[in-house]
Amino acid sequence: xxxxxxxxxxxxxxxxxxxxxxxxxxxxxxxxxxxxxxxxxxxxxxxxxxxxxxxxxxxxxxxxxxxxxxxxxxxxxxxxxxxxxxxxxxxxxxxxxxxxxxxxxxxxxxxxxxxxxxxxxxxxxxxxxxxxxxxxxxxxxxxxxxxxxxxxxxxxxxxxxxxxxxxxxxxxxxxxxxxxxxxxxxxxxxxxxxxxxxxxxxxxxxxxxxxxxxxxxxxxxxxxxxxxxxxxxxxxxxxxxxxxxxxxxxxxxxxxxxxxxxxxxxxxxxxxxxxxxxxxxx
Length: 282
Ligand code: AMP
Hints:
By secondary structure, this protein is α/β, with parallel strands linked by helices. It folds into 2 domains: 2-173, HUPs (Rossmann fold, 3-Layer(aba) Sandwich), CATH 3.40.50.620; 186-279, Pantoate--beta-alanine Ligase, Chain: A,domain 2, CATH 3.30.1300.10. Helix content is 39%, strand content 19%. It has a 6-stranded parallel β-sheet with strand order 1-4-3-2-5-6, with helices on both faces. Strands 7-8-9 form a 3-stranded antiparallel β-sheet, with helices on one face. The longest helix is centred in the C-terminal third of the chain and has 23 residues, at 193-215. The protein starts with a strand and ends with a strand. Bound molecules: adenosine monophosphate (AMP). The site of adenosine monophosphate has 17 residues, from helix 2 and strand 5.
């Protein structure tokens, strides 16, 4: 596996692969890898000839009081895992390669970025959309694989691809969970044992909400949100938001239907913020 640090070298490798009509997949990550990330690489392997995994902790998607400075750096471990999954290239640019002096341009996906995680993280999705645009330009993939774990992000990237006319297929891969249901996340390493117990409330709220959704034909989103609040609060979590929205448009549903997704963000303790989501009827 080639480890590539410069955009120029990455363009050239991708262009060489394209000349021989090889299908290229990109899997963007910020490192600190777990099974969720590795599952994306496996998806990519099924649908492409060449895989590029990018590892870049993108400074512009973190807010001022967020964990950019402490984001776990495990490059040696991560690159070993990526290579073992059969990736052909690891794009690992230094920050100054992505954001040259006097960088001024940003990509904004307007309405979709405003609700849900966008409320408490107003600049987050602008940072994500900008870095993903740059990664698409540098790697020229045919396919890009993202996790459904970051549900709002996935919808935003799909919109971005349509709006900016990229000829890239976006694949959304299922959420990979721990045995007890907690969605895998790089931020789970911040949880102490009490926090780890409390963190289960996201999955418990999802399971309870799915159960009610299956047992009743007519069910208001409000009832699901109330149930979620109750479960999260009882567990000691702080609910940042819980919404029932359409799985394609993120528009809130008044009543649960076959396209409804419950998405939630919960603060565990003072600083660990976790997200999760699930279709309610599936
Ligand atoms: P991150 O490194 O957290 O930016 O995540 C990189 C990619 O991995 C994103 O597309 C995430 O949605 C995806 N991902 C993170 N956690 C999971 C998970 N538990 N299951 C599936 N995909 C995930």
